[in-house]
Write a structure and sequence with these properties.
This protein is mainly β. The protein has no helices and 38 strands. The strands form 6 sheets. Strands 2, 3, 4, 5, 6, 7, 8, 9, 11, 14, 16 and 18 form a 12-stranded parallel sheet that branches. Strands 10, 12, 13, 15, 17, 19, 20, 21 and 22 form a 9-stranded parallel sheet that branches. The model is unreliable at 1-21 (pLDDT under 50). Pfam families: Por_Secre_tail.
């Protein structure tokens, strides 16, 4: 029997010319060396931390990947890269370099960002009581929450992309660098925009791709070219389209693309585009207007590409507004081919438990999803992979009989297998 092997790589849509404004893609944590002792200065190499480590200095040339239950304390980011998946940061000084947030980071104790570039990646969340942007903040599909004041200081700058969102109680802009957003737009939601609580001493932006969501009719001055939505309580109401997800699943012939929208404002239609080199895209669908269905009020769209077999194919969605303006989604890179037997599902058919074992050189967080062939998700589980061989067990006794797809995500790799009950 032919088994389909699916790798999906999410590529952030930063054109090369915009890297100076925002950020290049996240460095890979693949092949990282386990770091279990502190009191070190790192100037090269890629390291993964899943234990308690203190007194580190991360210099240019070094990449450190932090995952729970790991912690970093009494340490400095001095030109290198810290990739935050999960875990604990305390007494951490980000003086220079990149802090890249892929997981949820909430009020790290005695942590200052100073001159580092803070990048909240697609799906990442940074929550702070207050936040001062002194250097550079990139919100690339992620979310920044401040329960108090969000302030951009004189040399600070904010770049937003991929529908990134900032939610804050109060907002101040003292920066002359301005806030910008790429064509995939970004939103700032201000709960208290009144004078004395929100002050824009300098023009916020010269880009209409910066969307500002205000709860009432009051609009502060100096918003510049921002697109303002009043009587708006959440960024989801201001964004033209907010995606809950965009993913791919293998079919017997071809690839099924599915996406769910959390919000649609002045939206006209989608067009599915495909490429062989991630540069030259061609439309493969007509206007996708009608959703396949809905779940909890969120519209679900599907499109099946029957014209692909083996090889690597890149997909994106072109979302078109009613006024003809458009924006692109993130990219999915899909490789179809024969899968080597690195994944083991025991037993198959499953009864009460399903043991999932696989081997891969890459370490890091493993996400497992069990869904039926209609796409409904039944189970999810996350764990940390620290060795080449990995084993996880799912409790499946409550599942009805039928055919299921097991999706295993490790870094940028997706393994898809079928299992019966």
């Amino acid at each position: 029997m032919k088994i389909i092997h699916l790798f999906v790589l999410v590529i952030l849509l930063f054109p090369a010319v915009c890297y100076g404004q925002c950020a290049p893609p996240t460095p890979s944590c693949a092949g990282c060396v386990a770091l279990t002792t502190g009191n070190q200065t790192l100037s090269s190499g890629t390291y993964c931390i899943t234990a308690a480590v203190s007194n580190l200095t991360i210099q240019a040339g070094a990449v450190v990947c932090l995952s729970a239950p790991g912690s970093i304390s009494n340490s400095n980011l001095s030109g290198g890269v810290l990739v935050y998946n999960s875990g604990t940061l305390s007494n951490f000084n980000a003086n220079s370099g990149d802090l890249r947030i892929l997981g949820t980071l909430s009020n790290p104790s005695n942590t200052s960002f100073n001159g580092a570039r803070v990048i909240v990646e697609n799906g990442g969340v940074l929550t702070m009581n207050s936040l001062d942007v002194n250097y550079a903040l990139v919100v690339n599909g992620g979310t920044v929450n401040t329960t108090g004041l969000f302030r951009i200081n004189g040399s600070g700058s904010v770049c937003m992309a991929n529908m990134g969102q900032i939610h804050t109680q109060y907002f101040q802009n003292n920066s002359t660098n301005g806030t910008t957003a790429l064509s995939t737009k970004g939103c700032i939601s201000i709960a208290q925009p009144q004078n004395g609580q929100t002050n824009l001493n300098n023009t916020l932006t010269n880009s209409s791709n910066v969307l500002v969501c205000l709860p009432g009719s009051y609009t502060p001055s100096n918003l510049g070219s921002a697109t303002v939505t009043t009587n708006c309580t959440d960024c989801a109401a201001a964004l033209p389209v907010a995606y809950a997800y965009f993913r791919a699943q293998p079919q017997q012939n071809g690839v099924r693309l599915e996406w769910q929208t959390a919000n649609e404002l002045n939206h006209s239609h989608f067009i599915v585009e495909r490429s062989k080199n991630a540069l030259d895209f061609v439309p493969i669908s007509g206007q996708v207007v009608d959703p396949f269905g809905s779940q909890e009020g969120k519209k679900i769209y599907r499109y099946i590409d029957h014209e692909v077999a083996q090889g690597t194919f890149y997909y994106r969605l072109k979302q078109v507004d009613t006024d003809g303006q458009f924006a692109y989604s993130k990219l999915l890179a899909v490789s179809l081919g024969d899968q080597s037997p690195v994944v083991r599902l025991v037993p198959n058919p499953m009864v009460d438990q399903l043991k999932i074992g696989f081997e891969a050189d890459e370490t890091g967080m493993v996400d497992i999803e069990l869904s039926d062939i209609s796409g409904k998700q039944w189970l999810t589980q996350r764990s940390l992979k620290t060795e080449k061989s990995h084993l996880q067990t799912l409790s499946v006794q409550q599942l009805p009989r039928g055919l299921y797809l097991v999706t295993i995500r490790l870094g940028n790799q997706y393994f898809i297998r079928k299992v019966l009950k």
